Amino acid sequence: MISAVLLLLLIAAVVIGPFIWRVSISDIDVVAGLQGPSLAHPFGTDDLGQDLLARMIYGGRISLAVGLAAMLVSVFVGTLIGALAGMSRGALGYALMWLTDLFLSLPQLPLLLMLIYLFRDGLKAVFGPEGGIFILIVLVIGGLRWMPVARLVRAQFLSLREKEFVEAARALGASPVRQVVRHILPNALGPVIIAGTIDVAAAIIAESTLSFLGLGFPPDTPTWGRILYDAKDFLDIGPHWALFPGGAIFIAVVAINFIGDGLRDALDARKVI
Amino acid sequence: MSQYILRRLMIAIPSLLGISLVLFFVLALAPGDPFSELATNPNVPPEVQAALRAKFGLDDPIYLRYLHWLAAMAQGDWGFSFVSRVDVDTLILQRLPTTLYVVGSSQLLALLIAIPVGVYAATRPYSLFDQLANTFAFIGFSLPTFFTGILFILIFSVKLDWLPFVYSSVPGSGIPWLLEMIRQAIMPVMVLGLFQAASMTRFVRSAMLDVIRLDYVTTARAKGLGQAKVIVKHVMRNAMIPVVTLIALQMPAVFGGAIVTEQIFRIPGIGSLLISSILANDTPVVMAVTFVFACLVVLFNLIADVLYGWLDPRISFR
Amino acid sequence: MFDKNLRGMIDDVKDGRMDRRAFVKRMIAVGLTAPMANQILAIGGVAMAQSPNPYKPTKRGGGGPLKLLWWQGPTLLNPHFATGTKDQDGSRIFYEPLASWDVDGHLNPILAAEIPSIQNGGLSADAKTVTWKLKPGVKWHDGKPLTADDLVFNWEYASDPATAAVSIETYSGLTVEKIDDLTIRITFKKPTPFWANAFVGAYGCIIPKHLFADYKGGKSREAPNNLKPVGTGPYKFVEFKPGDLIRGEINPDYHMANRPSFDTIEMKGGGDAVSAARAVIQTGEYDFAWNIQVEDEVLLRLEKGGKGKALFAVGGDIEFIAINFTDPNTEVDGERSSIKTKHPILSDPKVRQALALLVDRDSVKKAIYGRAGRTTANYLNGPEEFVSKNTKWEFSVEKASALLEQAGWKLGSDGIREKDGKKLKLLYQTSINGPRQKTQAIVKQACQKAGIDVELKSVVASVFFSSDVANPDTYAHFYADIEMFQIPMTQPDPALHMRRYHSRNIATKENKWQGPNFPRWANKEFDAAIDAADTETDPIKRADLYIKGNDLMWQDNVMIPVMHRLAVEASSNTLRPALSGWANQTDNLQDWYRES
């Protein structure tokens, strides 16, 4: 409950924030660089003297949206492929596991560079510049992180599909889809939710690397991952710089996790007493 | 079962071939140049850079390059690095022991933390211990290793001056040298191990919770079995399936290295070789490392499947 | 006037009426630097001074270990294959050239008995031949003597295209012949005023004929000694792990007295620049770290109460924003940025001028480069005698806005200027590198204030600097409006540096974008000046020609210089490295010692 409030607060802050805190995200004032929190700059400034509160608010929109959306993509794709592979007893299962192995083996950096090289202009034309980049980032991050979920879900399915309650359902003539949705999946959700929370944090960090490669938002867009990355070399000089993005990612992770736990408890008949 | 393993191994060959084909095309299509450092050097005209590309066959059609690679590979020839002009297998073997030592230790550390903490936390859900363990886990995977690495350096090397942060690979012998090897591995192993432990703890706890509330556990308890015995004999074995999956997912990395951590602490492992080769578009090296990695991914997937059957005999493979 | 005085003074030095030191001082007073003054004397017929690096140790060895940190570790140890300075630095521990550029930019003899001059007959008046004499008694690490045959072999080896040597250009356009066992003569195909390229400095390192003779040409990669160097240098080879570690031990038969001072040497690779600076300045784990490209703010903090300090060496490296003179958005014959097009916005000199006014060099220096940068209006920043005094720069959003108004770009409702319904929008690309992204942010902000919309783009360095014909993201394709990077000056002479922008060198699809003139700027006056300078043997006229070239580039705003960059190194407080902005860091390694 608290967690849902926490996440809502975070979302509200980044959505309404710019209307209350009307400081530019890009105003450079090198004289006022690396200042700690003060009234003029509640979160302090970075080394170029840009206001960190404004940047955190602006970046939060992107980071939260990318983190949540990419997590949903990876969890959805992973669960789908894992479930299909877990239920299938034939060639489909092998094919899907091969696909998972392939994706696990692919080195990400060259793959991203290749995607940029081959598809950037085409994607820009299809999706349009702004919304297109968002969709692209979400698909790329989600598309490169679904494999652990798929393997976890498949492993759970292999075990669960032989359990008595599923057999009972099968004997009662439940269709495979019904078996999965009503009986197996709710019991396999545990690891999926954990993977989801980890993916939110990972996606927020991964986004900052993408913008470096020219695949994401332009390099001057302040996102939480990016601010944290920029701050790392100044950790002993201006610790506040890293504190705020690090803290924000942590709060987002905690909130998502508790929501996930709540979701599972709601779906699961046998609750922890 | 043995028949099943045999069949899986037979399938592994064409599937690895397929993976190698995709890998090669991705690497060959990824843009970049092993000789980009020459570009701004006024002493080296661009024709030299282009001539080197042509000489190393980078301008040949990709399918030809792949066939060359495959043919050489079949004879055990891994090719040579464009950047250092050294044979690829020499380069990899030079770095493998360090990666095995550092990444292996950190995985071990992660397991040693995650399993007891996760199990104990699951037996007392929402207790103070559980809450603390969860909070640390959340902090653990919210902070990327590039950040915690620097934090550790600042605390343990700069402030306290306890540990070195440049990993030295100077060969030596004797007890002092051995102690030094251990001392310099502490920080990277901690950074990597704690990061892995954070997520692993969450998975172990959740898997335990899933099982602990099943009827047969209650039955076992009702029979009057002790708490420890119930947990170890009845719960853990069944909760191990996700954990085995995760370990199987992590194992290839023990050989593949950890790019960020190796970079921060200057560990001469496979990860730092891989990233510098990727950045330099040194295809033979990247291809070799990723292909070995792919083999391990496939192998450990198979091992995990075999273990599932052992952990839960009802799982059947045909 | 200046010209005439100078000639008089050169004659005075020649005849001994004037001390050469006094001459150098006079030159410095009028704005030249010591290296150039010495070059003037050399070509004016006065033997070049040798200014040995200050060296205190009175015996060989005993200095303990020397621990170096190169955050990009050397990947190979054959100087002819060196793709980057890191490889040259690693090779230089074991291999040596005839002469190196020393701290003052003088040629300092290493394997040469003396520096060629007109007096000693080493240089010919027509600038077509150079005769080098080898120091007698120099031995390779395996005990074999160094002879003229080795030098001739190096020329044959490097200039053979099948060897795939990176130094091929250094050794082409000339022939090398043996005069006697210790003498060689280099003959250039055309007059070459700057003769000190082959066998000098980084690409001049000499490998032994007796170990490499069987591996010339196509078999060059198979030479076992590519990985186990046997040279003449101050340290003998012990161990090499590509990208990670090089170790060496003292060469007890080294050919210079009392050198080297250290007993062992270790060069560790990997990591990043910031932590390298920490390991030297803050914790003292290492003695020296190379190329510390770190915000000066960070360095200053590290130096407080630290165990080391940052060292700066002035060379001629220039970080700049280049302007595209052609249209990157129109395709002509399968090529964008084609020379057949004109840039729709930037071909207007007023817009280029406005852009130059919008680069806030002071803020860039303050926030990023600090002591490691000097603001400048010039593309050519050294050696001093080639530096123009006719140029100036300023930062003014007002003036830039006024210029844009004049050029017909009127402010739109969204704060972005437009003309004939077209928005004033520029794509600004560079390679991925912390300081560069910060510079982009500073420039973008000023442009926005003046009503220019700037889109930033950053490309991975290995892609940006690649010669991949098919990739549109390279600096040479220049499919952007403006782009920023650095061109280093590898020797104290501007010939190679300036020749790039000759109009015959424009990058096109036809030459596979190998033409080094990437801004695609064509100026007949510039071409004439550069052509004349290439064969001009009178040093003063030659310098004037290069200054003219620089001024033409400034007038046309081909390049907007961002920063004249200095080489930055981190060194422990007790180490006394011999560094030069005109040489690689290890080029004078034999002179390094530790203050006790």
TrEMBL record, chain A:
Localization per record: Cell membrane
Q: Where are the transmembrane segments?
A: 57-84, 96-119, 131-153, 192-217, 237-260
Any matching Pfam family: BPD_transp_1
Q: Can you give the residue ranges of the ABC transmembrane type-1 domain?
A: 60-260
Give the bilayer topology.
Multi-pass membrane protein
- What GO CC terms are in its UniProt record? plasma membrane
Q: What is its main location?
A: membrane
Gene Ontology BP term (one): transmembrane transport
Keywords, sorted A to Z? Cell membrane, Membrane, Transmembrane, Transmembrane helix, Transport
Highest taxon, organism lineage: Bacteria
The UniProt similarity line reads: Belongs to the binding-protein-dependent transport system permease family.
Q: What is this protein called?
A: Peptide/nickel transport system permease protein
What organism is the protein native to? Bradyrhizobium macuxiense
